[in-house]
Amino acid sequence: MKALFPIITASLLCSGTALAQDYDDYDDPIDEESAEARAAKKKKKAEVVREVVKGFYAKANVGTAIFLGNFSGATKAGTSTTIGVGSDFVDQERFSMAWEFSFTQGVHNGMSYEQQADLGCGVGAPCHQGDMRTYAITGSVEASTYPSRRIGLGARLGAGLLTSPLLIEKTAYDTEVIPEFGVDPGYHSGVKPLVFVGPTFEYYSKLSHFSVGIDADVFYGVGWDLGINATGYFKYTF
């Protein structure tokens, strides 16, 4: 029994030393350093996370169009709707640029052609068909700056082609309307060059792919008229 005592004592001491060494491993400085490095990487990654998504997008606008020139007295403010696609080709934290192609439709109520003829073409009235629709295909470039992460303020510049087809039979227009006018002003034939410029506002929602905004453009159709197009929009960026 006395011979076994030194052996048992030695075994307990070795076991205690092993346990102590195992415990010390958990506090090894290398492990602590690795944990700190992981935390730093995680923090750095969190700092560069973008709250908005940029890239290819689809966009839908609805609002109003108002004529300011010759059409203003005979044509009421109408409804303007647009669908378009585009893409951001410059994407920085405080600045971006995008291109966009759009199709726009305008619907306007107007003074009857008889009333316009009575006022005099080119004097008191533009002498178009009255109620009318307009269609435009446009391309534009937009540049925006970001005073905060979710708000963009910018400007757009664009050009395109506009047409306003007849809403009555061509023969009736030629035989009834034009004789009333005494001349064909040419508003409803062919396509007209169109240019526009104006500010834009965008708010990026917390649903990262969705944003809403406002476009307000001053437009001029060559051989057509001067006006303002103000619409709100909904945009989804893929």
Helix fraction by DSSP (H/I, runs of at least 4): 25-40%
Instruction: Please give the count of helices.
Output: 4
Q: What is the β-strand count?
A: 8
- Report the top-level CATH class of the largest domain: Mainly Beta
CA gyration radius, whole angstroms: 35 Å
Q: Indicate the low-confidence ranges by residue numbers.
A: 12-28
Comma- or semicolon-separated keywords:
Porin; 238 residues; 2 domains; elongated; 45% strand; alpha+beta
Describe this structure in words.
By secondary structure, this protein is α+β, with helices and mostly antiparallel strands. It folds into 2 domains: 44 residues; 182 residues, Porin (Beta Barrel), CATH 2.40.160. 26% of the residues lie in helices and 45% in strands. It has an 8-stranded antiparallel β-barrel with strand order 1-2-3-4-5-6-7-8. A hairpin with a 2-residue loop joins strand 4 and strand 5. The longest helix has 23 residues. The chain starts with a helix and ends with a strand. About 7% of the residues have low confidence.
Quick rundown:
The chain has 238 residues and is of the alpha+beta class.
Q: What layout of secondary structure does this protein have?
A:
Elements: H1 4-26, H2 29-47, E1 56-67, E2 78-91, E3 95-108, H3 113-119, E4 132-148, E5 151-163, H4 170-181, E6 192-204, E7 210-221, E8 226-237
